[in-house]
Amino acid sequence: xxxxxxxxxxxxxxxxxxDAVSRKVFFNKPQIERxxxxxxxxxxxxLLVVEPPTHPDMDFRYRIYNSDGSEVEHxxxxxxxxxxxxIDRGLTIKRIIxxxxxxxxxxxRVQDDGLVAVDMGTPSFEPKDLPFMAEPKSGxxxxxxxxxTYAMTPxxxxxxxxxxxxxxxxxxxxxxxxxxxxxxxxxxxxxNVGFMQVLNEAEINLRVYERGVGETQACGxxxxxxxxxxxxxxxxxxxxxxxxxxxxLRIEWQGEGSPIIMTGSAEKVFEGQIYL
Length: 276
Ligand SMILES: N[C@@H](CCC[C@H](N)C(=O)O)C(=O)O
Hints:
The protein is α+β, with helices and mostly antiparallel strands. Helix content is about 15%, strand content about 40%. The chain is built from 4 helices and 18 strands. It has helices spanning about 30-35, 75-90, 170-180, 220-230; strands spanning about 1-10, 15-20, 45-50, 60-65, 70, 95-100, 105-110, 115-120, 140-145, 150-155, 160-165, 190-200, 205-210, 215, 240-245, 245-250, 260-265, 265-275. It has an 18-stranded mixed beta sheet that branches. Strand 16 (about 245-250) and strand 17 (about 260-265) form a beta hairpin. The N and C termini lie close together (about 5 Å). Ligand LBFN2T5F binds next to helix 2 and helix 4.
């Protein structure tokens, strides 16, 4: 079967986006792994599949697969590209789009300046929601990794994140410790690992080792998780700019029970077709 796709990115976190509204498309794990290969396929961090909604109040359904073929609950940079994709392809004329995901409903708002603001839902710090094997508590959790112990905050923004505050961002630490924590036995569903350097109360530097991918240029849910962790610990104010390797995201969170609002760019790179 010949598959038509659009290559997009949000701050360098790259996607293949497929319209499964106009024509039904299903992917299995080996197909996704093959397509994601940067040498022999198209190459992407995540595959985004745009489907019709299953509920009349919703506009679309959004399925997300990591490059290793695993289906996940949420993808922040992908959500912004999703909004640009459905508008550019004429699948909707709305500027406020309600979308069903594996984690629940998200709302995408396309601004006049072209940026997309996403209501990412309410975060949870409950270990069981990731899941993370620990009794709930308010402070940091100690996580033993090889011969070291890391002070870590578990955050679910629909998908699971482990946030670690560091003084300096080190390539070696992101790659080695990120890979070890991703598959740590205390995270039975694996986890995305964020390394956050707090610059001041309104700015962080962040690198994310993503579950099912490895380090990416940017991670939207990772930025949300890091900022809400920082706000909860009193390190950050309610509006923060996260500097990621591929660019900046604006994250706002008013505290417990409030939704996280993430604002940033979404770019189309090219369209193509490939045999599935
Ligand atoms: N890049 C994404 C997150 C994609 C899913 C993640 N790797 C997971 O397994 O949960 C983002 O921008 O949020």
